[in-house]
Design goal:
Layout lengths: L3 H21 L2 H13 L1 H21 L3 H14 L8 H22 L9 H5 L2 H16 L3 H25 L5 H24 L13 H32 L1 H23 L1 H9 L3 H6 L1 H25 L1 H8 L8 H16 L2 H7 L3 H26 L1 H25 L10 H18 L7 H37 L1
């Protein structure tokens, strides 16, 4: 049985991988901004919308089998199955569905219902699902560094770089072709890495996916489908009500603010197995220090990035071009969304680790309903600000419901030491308001000095707070023993 000390060591090692992945992810968005500037707001807006649709289809095509491998591969050794059982079976099912979806899109492009440009994006579907399956296979086999390098750096950098090169080469359909090249290379690298881990794995497994893996994965797959629509609902509504140019501008601001979301999402595969390994007694003694440590680390890193974005929004948006500087106050609301989600949103990770996947699915459906209803009224009235407010609405509803559910089970995973994190989050939002209210106009050098002072203050805070959290974990460990 795992204990708090082992969990703490795992969290610290996984944190390093997560931070490295976050640093690598900077390269992709930077090139995306350059790409947006080159192609223009309208064409880039169409690209963003088409890509999000393809991502949604790709996630759905896996039927959740990619996420199921997180759980299934570690079980192979325990149940004395071959270690690679489930990998190729999952790939072939996902690939067949992806090819079927691609064919439907190609046929549909000859009708008035599907754009003639969409089939070019659909070419990437097969390689997207292959990347998902082989990436999670590596993570399920405790090789998270593979996914970090390929998913966080290689594909997201190669795709926009290729699109830019094709554009200057005068080749048409540069955006979807760049996406295709990035996914092909990522798929091939992942496949080679998985083959090295499992050299005896046959291309044809000679059997269908196991019943246990399928039953475990299907709820995850349906939840992924709903979640994909949820995440992208505001962008699609902006495209519907405000047009491609506003969608492109909103897409850039979402990309910038997603730097904060990336931190929280990166902790999902870290926290989930830790919670899943806790029995009822440990949930009452060890969950609070483990969860509070994750929340502290997520929000602390978010604060480092958030202050930079607040101080240098013009410089960041300027990379994409002046056409994308539309309703900049939207960015502040998006930052608030991810800060709030970083603090309270990981409660759903705890519930999933406890096996409450059906509840998670219900919350995804509820959140999607809130997102669509609020977006329908807010976006036409307030534009991009309305889209950000819609995102804030459904996140707050989900966070409140999740924490009430935990409280009813007798669990409250928040340490009192996290109150100071709330103060910092409020401080960041207040700082954003002051900067954007034009009470003062700071030049670039002054902004750099202010950010240096903030970093120093956060550094001192880190040293003091880390000691308090470690003390909490030590006392909890004594109790659990």
């Amino acid at each position: 049985m795992e204990n708090l000390e082992a969990d703490s060591k795992f969290l610290k090692k996984a944190l390093i991988v997560n931070v490295v992945g976050t640093i690598l992810k900077v390269c992709g968005p930077l090139l995306t901004f350059v790409m947006a500037r080159i192609f223009g707001a309208a064409e880039f807006g169409i690209f963003v919308s088409a890509q999000t649709l393809i991502l949604t289809i790709a996630h759905s095509a896996t039927l959740g089998l990619d996420k199921g491998l997180y759980w299934y591969l570690p079980q192979n050794k325990l149940n004395r199955r071959v270690l690679h059982d489930g990998i190729m079976e999952s790939f072939w099912i996902s690939a067949a569905i992806a090819l079927l979806c691609t064919a439907v899109i190609f046929v549909g492009s000859f009708t008035p219902y599907i754009s003639a440009e969409l089939p070019w994006y659909a070419l990437s579907l097969l390689f997207y699902v292959g990347t998902y399956v082989f990436s999670t296979a590596s993570e399920g086999n405790r090789r998270p560094q593979n996914a970090v390098f390929v998913n966080s750096f290689l594909t997201v950098t190669l795709a926009p770089a290729t699109s830019i090169a094709l554009y200057y080469g005068g080749i048409p359909h540069a955006l979807p072709l760049g996406l295709l090249v990035g996914q092909i290379v990522g798929f091939m690298v992942h496949f080679v890495l998985v083959r090295r881990q499992f050299p005896d794995m046959p291309m044809n497994p000679g059997k269908l996916v196991s019943r246990s893996l399928l039953l475990y994965s299907l709820p995850l797959g349906f939840g992924e489908f709903v979640s994909s629509f949820l995440i992208r609902s505001s962008l699609w509504l902006v495209m519907l009500f405000l047009g491609p140019e506003k969608a492109g501008a909103y897409g850039i601001m979402v990309t910038i603010s997603n730097a904060l979301q990336t931190i929280r999402v990166g902790f999902t595969p870290i926290l989930t197995p830790v919670v899943a390994g806790m029995d009822k007694d440990r949930l009452h003694t060890d969950l609070k220090p483990v969860y509070s440590y994750c929340v502290f680390m997520v929000t602390f890193i978010q604060l480092l990035i958030g202050f930079f974005i607040v101080l240098f929004p013009g410089e960041i948006l300027g990379i994409a071009g002046k056409d994308f500087i539309v309703q900049p106050e939207t960015l502040g609301i998006l930052l608030l969304v991810h800060l709030v989600a970083g603090f309270g949103g990981m409660s759903i990770v705890v519930l999933n680790g406890m096996g409450k996947s059906l509840y998670s699915l219900k919350m995804d459906v509820l959140s999607l309903g809130v997102a669509l209803i609020s977006g329908y009224f807010l976006i036409p009235a307030f534009g991009l600000v309305g889209a950000a407010l819609s995102m804030l609405c459904y996140n707050l509803v989900a966070i409140v419901c999740n924490n009430i559910y935990l409280f009813k089970m007798g669990l409250w995973p928040y340490s009192s030491k996290l109150i100071s994190q709330i103060v910092w989050i409020v401080g960041l939002i207040a700082f954003y308001i002051v900067i954007n209210a034009k009470f003062t106009d700071l030049d670039l050098i002054t902004k750099a000095l202010v950010y240096a002072v903030v970093l120093a203050m956060l550094g001192i805070y880190w040293v003091v707070q880390k000691k308090k959290i470690e003390a909490d974990k030590d006392s909890a460990q004594k109790v659990s023993k």
